[in-house]
Amino acid sequence: MGEDLERLKQRLPLLDFLRQQNWIGRPAGQGPEFVGLCPLHSETRPSFYVNALKNLFYCHGCGQGGDLIRFVELSQHLSFRQSLTYLERQSAVADPALVLQQASAFYQQQLDHYPEARQYLERRGVRDPALIRELQIGYAPGGRLRRYLLAQGYSLDLLRRTGLVNLQGHDTLYQRVVFPCYQDSSIVNLYGRSIGSAFAHRFLTGTKGDLFAWESVRQFPSVILVEGMLDLAVLWQAGFRHATCSLGTHLTSDQFQQLCDRPRTVYLSFDLDANGSGQQAAHALAHRLRAQGITTRRVLLPPGHDPNSFFVRGGDARQFQSLLEAALL
């Protein structure tokens, strides 16, 4: 253990670590010491000293001192072993996919603890607990993600770069039901649907990934393409397991190529909204797909409906199957 600790400290010198945390220190004389404001307590006169040669710190203001591990214990409020885990991850190459995976798992754990989130899913027709687990649906209550991920060893800088927390350090997806977005079997984004009217639905920064669950859907000779995750959820719940989701009417180039990777029929079941934007997007996409040799059918839902509202307001699998059979070329 002692040798491992020393190697860890050599990989992450205390002064370098502090500078990564935006600590500003100036040389204290001609030796290896630096001085700056203490990151452990509020002060206006610098009293925090770092000896770069010995890899130690001491604050004359609050009286705290020690090595890198002790600093992490104090600054992050972690145990000794948690601090080791934190530093091991700090010393490794930061992988955004890993922190997104941890965040997604954390959100899934939160879902059952917040009745308002389960009630929202119930209102949207998503009732099957096994399906909720399969789709990895979670909930971002706000106020807990940052502390949890910091305790897992991820840096605040990484949380900000992935968009999980904003510049103020708050949970970006606050009060949203959360869906993971995959690409090549790795989580590349999270999509949050607001459970109320106060916040907009949103992605984190970056790509929205593949067509949802494409590896399991691509085997079917025909697929149903929908705009949103709640559309997909009610279709899967009704037995239409060949449905996939593009998370919006505008497909990325990768998503478009996925639909074209083999001959198939694509049923486009976009919103039939008052302004016609959903059907305009479906018409344009059908034209592009046909140019690639893909057979397309446009599913005409009742006016004002999307697949989710169709099922929420009493539609059933037999009726939706009739809509598929009546779909337009």
CATH topology-level fold name of the largest domain: Dna Topoisomerase Vi A Subunit, Chain: A, domain 2
CATH class identity of the largest domain: Alpha Beta
Work out the count of structural domains: 3
User: Order of SSEs, N→C?
Assistant: HHEEEEEHHHHHEHHEEEHEHEHEHEHH
How many β-strand runs?
13
Low-confidence stretches: none
Radius of gyration: 26 Å
* Strand arrangement in the largest pleated sheet: 1-2-3-4-5
Instruction: Please state roughly what percent of the residues sit in beta strands, choosing from under 5%, 5-15%, 15-25%, 25-35%, 35-45% or over 45%.
Output: 15-25%
Task: Compute the separation of the termini in Å.
Answer: 68 Å
Determine the mean pLDDT.
91
What proportion of the residues is helical, as a percent range?
A: 40-55%
Provide a count of the helices.
Answer: 15
Coarse morphology: elongated
Overall structural class, as computed from helix and strand content, comes to alpha+beta
The major beta sheet can be summarized as: 5 strands, antiparallel
The CATH level-2 architecture of the largest domain is identified as 3-Layer(aba) Sandwich
General description of the model:
The protein folds into three domains: 2-91, DNA Primase, Chain A; 96-203, DNA primase, catalytic core, N-terminal domain (DNA primase DNAg catalytic core, N-terminal domain), CATH 3.90.980.10; 214-325, Dna Topoisomerase Vi A Subunit, Chain: A, domain 2, CATH 3.40.1360. The strands form three sheets. A five-stranded antiparallel β-sheet has the order 1-2-3-4-5, covered by helices on one side. It has a four-stranded antiparallel β-sheet with strand order 6-7-8-9, covered by helices on one side. The model has no long low-confidence stretch (mean pLDDT 91). The N and C termini lie far apart (68 Å). 40% of the residues lie in helices and 17% in strands. Helix 3 (68-76) packs across helix 4 (80-91). The chain contains 15 helices and 13 strands. The chain has helices at residues 2-11, 14-20, 68-76, 80-91, 96-111, 115-123, 129-134, 145-151, 156-161, 214-217, 229-237, 253-259, 277-291, 307-312, 317-325; strands at residues 26-27, 33-36, 48-51, 56-59, 65-66, 138-140, 176-183, 186-194, 202-203, 222-226, 243-245, 265-269, 295-298.
